[in-house]
Amino acid sequence: MTVPTQNTDERLLELIHQNQTTAFHELYERYKAGMLIFAAQRVSRDTAEDLVQDVFLSLWKNRAKLEIKERIAGYLFKALRTKIIDHMSKSINAQKYLDSIDAFAKSHTGTDAKVREETFLKRIEDLLHRCGPQYQMILKMRLEGYNNQEIADYLGISEKTVRNQSSNLMKVLRSKLSSWILFTFF
Fold first, then answer.
1. C-alpha to C-alpha distances, 127 to 25, 122, 175, 185, nearest whole angstrom
2. Which one, out of 6, 50, 130, 167, has a CA that is 20 to 30 A from the CA of 78?
């Protein structure tokens, strides 16, 4: 509860024009609570406090050139309403901007990853063509879940040959793809 003073709003405004901080403080204390309630109904409590502070800070900074032709209460609440609208507008625009960045990143990340995957698979395919058809068949059957004995039986070769060729194939793929993977994916 504020102690009533004999200063009217108009008198306080005159004193503020004369750089009287006590008059400014009195005006602040007179309207702070009502302005906080008004703002807190529209924005969060913390934001409401910030916006009320901004209104009074602006009033103090512009005190020398300030010409208020209406009641100070009306002026302060209009200024606060404008600050609230500006804040909401910035918040909405900021959210739209963040959403657009997120959508852009998602759309381009998927495309980029797909291009990398296709390039990687093409590179493996090219290496397999150089290794010969038996190596290709061993890798294909291994990827389909066949074990060494099943592959050997299907191809008519020994299981040891399948193991050796699988090992050789993995060595070739690792040596040829390791540096390429490093530059492509990282």
1. 80, 9, 11, 19
2. 6
